[in-house]
């Protein structure tokens, strides 16, 4: 994978979260992720605190497989993008080290500057598809 294709992967990954068409979102998920791929989210502090109050240590939110990832992306899209609150865009250059890609992204309100963002660490399979996506917002 060249530097250009690493950046293209990052752009396609971030664009997925902005995609309004459910059919195109599903197609993008199937192109980006391995069939049994997993999306793991390090949740915001308030969610971690609520989970700890319920007896869960080190809570991680997880979606595995195309259907679960599609649900996760669709809910994020409905909450942030379709509501008009934010869109997502890549931030900086993606970096690859063997089968791991690190990319940064920003959450931007309409007509504004970045209001937040995060980093994703993608572990790719031998076909260049995402086996694991570790998302660290904030």
List its traits:
alpha+beta; 6 strands; 36% helix; 138 residues; Nuclear Transport Factor 2, Chain: A; globular
Protein described:
The structure is a single chain. It is globular, with a radius of gyration of 15 Å. Helix 1 (3-16) runs antiparallel to helix 2 and helix 2 packs across helix 4. It has one domain (3-137): Roll (Nuclear Transport Factor 2, Chain: A). A 6-stranded mixed sheet has the order 2-1-6-5-4-3. The chain is built from 4 helices and 6 strands. Helix content is 36%, strand content 36%. With 138 residues, the chain is an alpha+beta fold. The protein has helices at 3-16, 22-32, 45-53, 66-81; strands at residues 33-41, 61-64, 87-97, 100-108, 116-124, 130-137. A hairpin with a 5-residue loop joins strand 5 (116-124) and strand 6 (130-137).
